Every structure is written in structure tokens, then in C-alpha cells.
Amino acid sequence: LKLQFVDLNQQGMNLELSMQLPETMARRLRAIVLSDNGRTSLIGMADPMDLAAVDEIAKKLGHDVEVAVIRESQLLVAFDEVYKQNEEISTIATELDSELSAQVFDIAQLSQADVDDSDAPVVRLLQTIFEDAVLARASDVHIEPEETVIRIRRRVDGVLSETVMRETRVGAALVLRLKLMCGLNISEKRLPQDGRFNILVNGRSIDVRLATLPTQFGETAVLRLLDQSQQVLNLSDTGMPPEIEVRFKQALAQPHGMILVTGPTGSGKTTTLYGALKFLNKPELKIVTVEDPIEYRMSRLTQIQVNPKIGLDFASVARASLRHDPDVLLVGEMRDEETVDIGLRSAMTGHLVLSTLHTNDAISSALR
To answer: Which of 21, 94, 273, 365 is 20 to 30 A away from residue 297, measured at CA?
Structure first.
């Protein structure tokens, strides 16, 4: 057809442009706006031969359009990312803002830990934010107060997108509710705090890690979302090139040694390691993992969650786990010299040690 083919995974989208087409129209015609030079818009379509749809889009946009081809599977994912529940979030935020006085929050009402109370606007707003984040497969949600607005941002595939609300008082109510769900000190607003809780969203168990930080306009909060119900990927599904996968499996077949998976935050280190554990998970091998937090639950593995507040850190748990006769030891992260020391000693005394290191590439791991 001599039409341009667009891979959305590579190119990404301009959310502002994409919103030029209403959601119902975009989903019905299987089309999305990719770019606009002022005279012509580039439209991505699953069926570029649908001339009636092309005419309807041109009429809606008010100028000429060019057509590019997009995989339908990518288009459906893009719709979920573009047409997030922004309107619903804004509506609930306005309702919540009108219920909150300028100075006082109803602490008694907010402290009720059951999130099934669908009548409380703050609970409904949180539920909508979580549903939106899970639908868009977001890894993090940021709640950021400013002087005149509050921003709610989601990180999807490493890129942040935001919803801006004028109701600034909503931010304090959201952070307060989240702190109560984590069992944190709600009266302490001057120090950073962190906690975790579990929530059920659309039938999926989501483990949420909360970190708060005091700023000049109030507390900002970041939520790291971990989908516990997600299936562990096979190594062949992680996107690893076939020749690298063969070498990786050869390394995993060794009886002892250390394998480090390196890369920046959110690049898929833990997912790769769990693919390796799925490959190794056989009745004849004893596998012990030391993690913070336990990101995927797997049968036959001894999985240990660290808790630095009571002295249960990576180093002490890794040392204790060696007495449990493991064949394979996974240490979630090499954070300090002591953990590295125990990992290296374990690798030299007949154990296969798997871990991650925060470096931007494999070569700088030795220097680190």
C-alpha cells in the first residue's frame, strides 16, 4: 500500500494530540492522532483501507489527514493509556474539594481502614487513581502538591504522564489516607516516611510501596505498584535475544558462581531474574530468595522479605539463609559492601548466586 508503518513501542505518543479524537470515535474507527504540522495530521489506523473512517476523521479535525498503519494490539493498549480516567478523577476531586474545609479534615472518617466505603470521595478518588494506573500498566504514581495545583503523574514504560487538578486541598487528604492505610504517623509531616499496603484492584492483588517527602507546599507521595497476580515470564518472553538467552541458560546451568543482572531502575532486572528462577525451579534444587519486597510469589521457593527496621537487612538474611543448604541464592539487590562480600563468598563455596546491581551497563559493574 506504500503507507508508513508506525511501531508505537518505539515512537510513543503525544497525549495532547491523541485527545483531539474523542474516545468513542477513536475506538470505533480504530484510529489515533500521531502528529500534526498545522496543515496535515498523521493518523495511525489498524485498517488504513477504511476510506469512510478517514473522511470522518478529516471532517472532525478540520484539515487533511495522512494515514499510517499500526498494529491493532498496540492501538488497543494505546487507547487505555491515552483515554485514562482523567475526567472521572477531576470530577471526584472537585466533589472532594467542596467537602473539605480549608483547615480541617475529618480524621475519624478518613481513618476507617476499609476502602469499600464508596461514598467517601477521598476513597473513590484513590480507587479511581489505582484503577487508572493498573489499566495503563503504570509502575509508579506520583502525587505532587504545588502552590496553585496538584499533579497526579503515572509512569508507564519509563515515561511520565500527568493529570493536573486545581483542588490543592485534595493532595493533603490523599496523602493522609495513604498514610493511614500504611499505618504511618499522620501527625508527622516534617520527616520522610515510607510504608506499604496491599489493595485489590479489578480482581488483581496490587502491592503498594508508599514514600512521602515534605515539600514547601505540603507532602509529596510516590507509590510503587507491584502486581502480585502477574505471571512470571519465561526467559524467552523477556525480549532477550536468542543468542544471549542460550549463553544465559548455560551460565544458569553452572553449579556455582555469581550472575549479576545490571541496568537502570525499572529496566526489568528483577523480571529477568524471576525468569531465570522459573527456568531453575526444579524439585532437585533448593532455591532461597532474599528480597525487598517479594515481587512475585512462586511455589517451591523459600522467599524471605527483608525488614531493616528490626535489623533484618540483606546481609544478615543472606548470611542466615546459607545455613538452609541452598543450591541457588537470589539476593534482590547488592546494596552494600557486606552483601557483596557474602554473595562472593557464597559463589566461591559451591552456591549459584543471582543478584542485581544498579549500574547503567554491564561493563561498569566491575568498577562498581
So the answer is: 365
Between 93 and 192, the higher pLDDT residue: 192
Q: Which residues pair with 161 in a beta bridge?
A: 154
What the block records as the C-alpha cell of 131 is 484503577
269 near 261, Cβ under 8 Å?
Answer: yes
Rounded Cα distance between 112 and 110, Å, is 5
User: pLDDT for 293-302, tens place per residue?
Assistant: 787 788 899 9
Distance CA 39, CA 27 (A): 24
Residue 282 burial (C-beta neighbours within 10 Å; 0-12, 13-18, 19+): exposed
Measuring CA to CA, which residue among 316, 310, 304 is closest to residue 342?
316
Give the three cell numbers for residue 272: 529477568
| pLDDT reported for residue 118 | 44
